[in-house]
């Protein structure tokens, strides 16, 4: 055999030794090839594994608003406030906010009990018989009438500092009874106090102390002994005031946990979940529900009147002080002998508060939009007011019936503009009750 010749004139990978016997190919080429393949496989596996791990991590770490998280840096904007407070337990259905403000749905996650306690919750949205029967009596029409008649004949013998604001005064009558006098330079604040009181009477709320209107007139028996004190207080004559029965044994009242930012809702599922608290005895539990039932009335009342000086005060200041929700509610007290919540200082209602709705409406709406537990009598009255549309007539008739011509000459009745806004807010409360009924009602 002759020597091997390549017809392409390229060197051959096969070589011949001196004995003309073919030699095996060198292992170097195969080794390199195998190593390259192995490295390619390892590289592809590593890349795939890394991507598979990183993608979920990046997704999970993306910023989301959680139901139990409160931002520590809050800007003074509507979006920020709703992000903090608006998540509710049934999901926010308003089409203008859906997909914009994340919500948590307890409707889907809550496992219903086999039998709901009708003594606690009735028809899914009302406080039950046990709670209604345990509510304190408070102040109703008879006590209001007695106080109104008393003020017309009362004679004050002493006036001193007290009852809140700088120009307010605590007066003592000749029989030892006491009252709080609300004096203001602005007539609309006296109107706000008085017509908020009248609205509470229409709603049958027992939480406002009996009140009546009078006029500072040194010729009247009520004021004739207080000439020096009135001069010291820098009161002007012929000014309307609101005289409210003094209530003793008052303690501060805190905001319940269900209305604080971490929870911020109240519905039947929340009530039933509270019954699982093994630490509380039944009496303490019922006591808590009695307070919450009064809060449900307070939320409706303050929304209707646009009261700025109570819970809205806490909500507004939360953006600067995260601990303010743990502080006592402003202008709210609890009677130590009956657990009655007393709604104090309603002068911003219906007039002054309405003028500031553009700035504060978001705070007014927060609690209402997350409330789905109501007293049935309050809900029924709201429905009646919505149907009849006569709240303005009711307020004006009450004002005309209970006050003399001399008072009506000084103190105007409620303005038409306020009546229009009040009707709109009654509609919103009605819609909230209807929405809750569609979600939580047992029927």
How does this model look, in words?
With 443 residues, the chain is an alpha+beta fold. The chain contains 16 helices and ten strands. The strands form three sheets. The protein has a five-stranded antiparallel beta sheet, sandwiched between helices. A three-stranded antiparallel beta sheet has the order 8-9-10. A two-stranded antiparallel ribbon has the order 1-2. The longest helix is centred in the first third of the chain and has 33 residues, at 28-60. The radius of gyration is 36 Å and the shape is elongated. It starts with 27 loop residues before the first helix and ends with a helix. InterPro entries: FJX1/FJ (IPR024868). Keywords: Membrane, Transmembrane, Transmembrane helix. One of its GO terms (biological process) is cell-cell signaling. The chain crosses the membrane at residues 36-59.
Write the layout of secondary structure elements.
Layout: H1 28-60, H2 78-85, H3 106-109, E1 121-122, E2 126-127, H4 129-134, H5 141-153, E3 156-161, E4 169-173, E5 178-182, H6 187-202, E6 211-215, H7 227-232, E7 240-245, E8 250-254, H8 268-274, H9 282-305, H10 311-317, E9 328-335, E10 341-343, H11 352-355, H12 357-368, H13 376-388, H14 391-402, H15 405-410, H16 416-440
Antiparallel strand pairs: 1-2, 3-4, 4-5, 5-7, 6-7, 8-9, 9-10
């Amino acid at each position: 055999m002759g020597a091997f010749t390549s017809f392409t004139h390229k060197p051959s990978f096969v070589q011949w030794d001196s004995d003309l016997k073919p030699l095996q190919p060198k292992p170097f080429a195969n080794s390199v090839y195998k190593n390259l393949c192995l490295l390619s496989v390892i590289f592809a596996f590593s890349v795939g594994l890394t991507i598979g791990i990183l993608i979920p991590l990046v997704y999970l770490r993306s910023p989301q608003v959680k139901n139990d998280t409160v931002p520590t840096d809050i800007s003074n904007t509507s979006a920020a406030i709703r992000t903090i407070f608006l998540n509710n337990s049934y999901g926010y259905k308003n089409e203008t906010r859906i997909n914009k403000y994340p919500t948590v749905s307890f409707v889907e996650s809550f496992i219903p009990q086999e039998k709901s306690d009708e003594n606690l919750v009735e028809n899914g949205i009302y406080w039950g018989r046990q709670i209604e029967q345990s509510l304190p009596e408070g102040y109703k029409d008879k006590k209001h009438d007695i106080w109104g008649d008393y003020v017309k004949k009362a004679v004050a013998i002493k006036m001193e500092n007290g009852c809140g604001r700088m120009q307010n005064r605590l007066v003592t009558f000749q029989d030892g009874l006491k009252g709080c006098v609300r004096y203001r330079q602005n007539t609309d604040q006296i109107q706000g106090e008085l017509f908020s009181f009248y609205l509470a009477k229409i709603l049958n709320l027992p939480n406002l102390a009996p009140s009546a209107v009078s006029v500072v007139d040194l010729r009247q028996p009520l004021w004739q002994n207080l000439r020096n004190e009135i001069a010291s207080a820098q009161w002007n004559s012929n000014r309307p005031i609101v005289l409210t029965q003094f209530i003793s044994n008052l303690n501060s009242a805190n905001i319940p946990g269900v209305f604080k930012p971490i929870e911020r809702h109240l519905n039947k599922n929340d009530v039933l979940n509270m019954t699982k608290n093994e630490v509380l005895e039944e009496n303490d539990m019922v006591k808590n529900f009695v307070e919450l039932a009064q809060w449900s009335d307070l939320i409706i009342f303050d929304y209707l009147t646009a009261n700025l000086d109570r819970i809205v005060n806490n909500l507004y200041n939360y953006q600067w002080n995260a601990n303010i929700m743990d502080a006592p509610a402003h202008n709210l007290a609890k009677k130590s002998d009956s657990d009655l919540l007393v709604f104090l200082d309603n002068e911003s209602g219906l007039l002054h508060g309405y003028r500031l709705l553009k700035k504060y409406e978001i705070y007014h709406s927060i609690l209402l939009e997350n409330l789905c537990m109501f007293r049935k009598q309050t809900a029924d009255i709201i429905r009646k007011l919505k149907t009849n549309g006569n709240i303005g007539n009711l307020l004006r008739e009450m004002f005309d019936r209970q006050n003399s011509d001399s008072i009506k000459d000084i103190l105007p009745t409620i303005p038409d503009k306020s009546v229009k806004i009040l009707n709109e807010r009654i509609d919103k409360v009605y819609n909230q009750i209807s929405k809750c009924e569609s979600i939580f009602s047992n029927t």
